[in-house]
Amino acid sequence: MDYNKRCSFGRVLSVGWENEDGVLRLEYDDDMDGVEVAVATAEQIEIGDLVVEESASKLKDLVPYNGVVNVEGLNRPLLAVQFTKLKDGLAMGCAFNHTIPDETSMWHFMTSWAQICSGAQTISVPPFLDRTKVHNTRIKLNLPLPPETSSPAPPLRVKVFKFSESAIDLIKATANLNPNPKPFTTFQSLSTHVWQAVTRARNLEPGDTTVFYVFANCRHRVDPPMPMNYFGNVIQPVVTRTSVGLLLKNTAEFGAGMIRKVIEMHDAKAIEAWNIEWESKVLGWKDAEENCVVVGSSPQFKVCDVDFGWGKPEVVRSGSNNRFDGTVYMHQGKGGGKSVDLDISLEANAMENLEKDEVFLMGMGRMA
């Protein structure tokens, strides 16, 4: 990888502590580089190399600051962008410090940036930035850098499974076989489909516990509610657990019902309770729990529609940070409509089993 240029620009935000209170804050600071832009060349890589199902190893070189954690934002850029000229195209890799945006804000930013680059005089939905009119929780923090681990993590495989619109319709219909006045959503149905499949692939015992995490958008859940265009990080993990035996012997309706229930229960009171214990949760977070499935995105974000003026992207993928055994990113499929790309990280043996699972693949599941 040849780097032609690397620079920082602008009067930008930096991270600091609010006096003796130990409260994390952002401030303007001319002396710190909040945004970094790099231009690189990788003419040995083609677009075709990046749209295949297993391209994670090549993506690493196209996204800056791999392996950097959020707390390092105290002395590193809060946003880094790398433009890489490929043999037959351009790759745009972005690294956001997650203390600033959640995925709703990140894609709001990317969409707005693309609109400006395409000639728009104003963006369609301005961000809401007034912190005085939104829910505010002050939490004292004392966050050290994460300890270095002595034992290496088990090798992971990362693979993208492409589910067509017809496959998504079938998955949703399977979860809604029984008449229900409130049908399960596409997200709930697909999440259950993945949770059951990954649990089968791990060859766990019926009495083992399996855990499902989803990161809920809390803008409309807090009291008073925040505007949906509020720019910041307003997500919390929502967790449900059950035994492997119960999850696998029941239909998809069982898992989807659990997921829907725990999401619906995550109201303002639950959010406040989570905030009270937030510091211990941050310090104790160790790649979630054993036997977990963690969904960190949603196909509701129209990522393939973000056009900077040179055409819609051929593929959108997540970087290598925040990956461990059981992470799942759901992205809008390039085919549009209801098609979904499932970006899954699993230990090698489990991934091999998942690739052979015809119930998961549903015959047509890997059609673009």
Automatic annotation (TrEMBL):
This is Uncharacterized protein. It comes from Rhododendron molle (Chinese azalea). The lineage of its organism: Eukaryota, Viridiplantae, Streptophyta, Embryophyta, Tracheophyta.
